[in-house]
Amino acid sequence: MQKPNKRLQGQICIVTGSSSGIGKAVAMAMGTEGANIVVNYHSGKEKAEEVAHWIIKNSSCGDAIVIKCDVSKEDEVKQMFEKTIKEFGTVDVCVANAGIQIDHPLHEMPFDAWKKVIDINLTGQFLCARESIKEFLRRGMREEVSKSLGKIIHMSSVHEVIPWAGHANYAASKGGLVMLMQSICQEYGPKKIRCNSIAPGAIKTEINKDVWSTKEGREGMLGLIPYKRIGIPEDIGSVASWLASDESEYINGTTIYVDGGMTCYPGFTTNG
Ligand code: NAD
């Protein structure tokens, strides 16, 4: 058996919400590692196609296609997996990345704002994980590409452990991901399925542009980051590629914080 030259060569990776931000960087990083990528988008087909074209141009062996799907809709998620399997044969890696924020003080939070965030950030990740596991179990081991039956990476947040006033729906969705991810690990680890989360800190993307685009906002963010640098999507892309590869094979059921130290309570630096 010939050993692949690239860490994800020959693997098929679905990255949800990958027409922008962190998902885009993850898709590009995995593409340059030789994977065939499904660039999932919800809106903005052109941006998704640009990501796919970039991967096709810059990867020596990987391919890329775009698939429209709202991850909060069961039928659409099922169709995304069916199309992927039809096009590429199977799925080896799913990065459940799509996520949104709709912020309100809790006592004023419309039910729709609660429901939409939970539907996309938590239920959407459940639906993608479920379809991934079904496919991993159906097709069996592909020893030529990986030592694991399949890999699921949930895009969580430091707010899976840091409470967030004014953002209770978002924090609750990410807190819920911890138990989803760990329960999957416990249930399917024996089948050699790996399930982990990545918890980004403050990463410059559209989701938080209103904060980092002002001097005051940037300074506020930096006050929360011991490493004194706001993150960029590529910081997450490189970790996700490694976490999907056999180099991290023994990592299962854990969250990798990629946050410049945000979870180390920088407010206590000067004795609290
Ligand atoms: P982003 O807004 O650029 O990306 C979110 C993506 O999700 C977009 O491409 C959007 O089109 C897609 N999306 C939204 N609703 C969807 C749906 N129903 N179906 C499919 N796709 C949908 O922001 P980002 O920062 O790149 O966010 C990506 C993930 O990273 C999210 O889960 C977010 O919670 C998480 N995260 C981001 C940060 C940060 O600082 N940027 C920090 C922690 C966690």
Automatic annotation (TrEMBL):
PROSITE patterns in the record: ADH_SHORT
Pfam families given in the database record: adh_short_C2
InterPro entries named in the record: NAD(P)-bd_dom_sf, Sc_DH/Rdtase_CS, SDR_fam
Family: Belongs to the short-chain dehydrogenases/reductases (SDR) family.
SUPFAM superfamilies, per the entry: NAD(P)-binding Rossmann-fold domains
Descriptive protein name: SDR family oxidoreductase
Species: Euzebyella saccharophila
